[in-house]
């Protein structure tokens, strides 16, 4: 009787799919976040003119709400990306990868808390409550909500900066990513931390570090797509393990199945 031996898919296939998920998630985020935070909001908010800001929000209510929805999608994708990066990088150092994943989740939670301020503005200006207040009161409430959003955004960037520091370390240590990419991601994280702390400690400091330090983030997207196409280093996959607690295949090829000619399947080993 002849036995046919078949093997289950290797971890490399699973890793490639996870890399694709991470790359696509980061790419969509890289498109939506600038649209909302660098395109829509700066054109609606006039820092020195509360009346003009309120009028802009009212005149462009639909666009304002689309921007809020876009940011909400970004925070949802952050959860997916945190998981994907954890799966890809935990072979390097499981403890650090877990910390890095949690930092991204905490940053997403902080961003959601800040986003509620923008939603409050949209709901307030679109509701009946606004008509019962004086224009000065409306303007004061709107500008206070915008200031709260900005403060929450700064806190989120600090936490996200810490996430990038840890992520850069893991990328630097990984055999599947170039070391220069890890260095650039660390620099990006340091830029966000510098932005937050300078705004807290030196309010009049106008320079924005992250405008010049963000390069590692788009390069990470490119490299994730590269790995999704080319695959991962087999030697690193062989050192990984299958964790029963999270149910995610992480590197060890699954036992071969022996398929006898009678069609029954028995596990080999």
Question: Can you describe this structure?
Answer:
The protein has helices spanning 11-44, 50-59, 61-89, 94-125, 135-173, 179-201, 210-213, 216-230, 234-238, and strands at 4-6, 257-259, 266-267. The protein is mainly alpha-helical and 269 residues long. Strands 1-2-3 form a 3-stranded antiparallel beta sheet, with no helix packed on it. α3 packs antiparallel against α4. The longest helix is centred in the middle third of the chain and has 39 residues, at 135-173.
What does the secondary structure layout of this molecule look like, with pairings?
Layout: E1 4-6, H1 11-44, H2 50-59, H3 61-89, H4 94-125, H5 135-173, H6 179-201, H7 210-213, H8 216-230, H9 234-238, E2 257-259, E3 266-267
Antiparallel strand pairs: 1-2, 2-3
The number of helical segments is 9
Helix content: over 70%
Count of DSSP strands: 3
| Uncertain spans | 4-13, 237-269
N-to-C span: 19 Å
Biggest β-sheet description: 3 strands, antiparallel
Percentage beta strand: under 5%
Q: Structural class, please?
A: mainly alpha
What is the radius of gyration?
Answer: 24 Å
Rough outline: elongated
Give, in order, the helices and strands: EHHHHHHHHHEE
Strand arrangement, major sheet? 1-2-3
Number of domains: 1
């Amino acid at each position: 009787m002849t036995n046919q031996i078949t093997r289950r898919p290797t971890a490399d296939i699973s890793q490639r799919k996870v890399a694709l998920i991470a790359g696509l998630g980061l790419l969509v985020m890289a498109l939506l976040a600038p649209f909302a935070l660098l395109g829509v909001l700066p054109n609606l908010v006039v820092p020195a003119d509360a009346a003009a800001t309120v009028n802009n929000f009212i005149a462009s209510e639909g666009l304002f709400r689309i921007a809020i929805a876009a940011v909400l999608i970004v925070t949802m994708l952050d959860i997916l990306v945190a998981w994907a990066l954890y799966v890809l990088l935990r072979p390097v150092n499981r403890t650090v990868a877990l910390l890095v994943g949690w930092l991204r989740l905490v940053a997403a939670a902080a961003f959601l808390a800040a986003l509620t301020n923008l939603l409050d503005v949209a709901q307030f200006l679109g509701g009946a409550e606004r008509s019962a207040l004086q224009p000065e009161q409306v303007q004061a409430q709107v500008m206070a909500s915008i200031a709260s959003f900005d403060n929450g955004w700064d806190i989120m960037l600090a936490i996200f900066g810490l996430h990038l520091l840890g992520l850069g370390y893991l990328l630097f240590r990984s055999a599947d990513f170039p070391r220069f990419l890890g260095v650039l991601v660390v620099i990006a994280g340091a830029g966000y931390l510098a932005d937050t702390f300078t705004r807290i400690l030196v309010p009049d400091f106008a320079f924005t570090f992250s405008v010049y330090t963000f390069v590692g983030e788009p390069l990470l997207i490119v490299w994730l797509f590269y790995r999704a196409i080319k695959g991962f280093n087999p030697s690193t996959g062989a050192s990984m393990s299958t964790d029963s607690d999270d149910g995610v295949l992480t590197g060890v090829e699954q036992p071969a199945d022996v398929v006898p000619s009678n069609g029954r399947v028995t596990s080999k080993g």
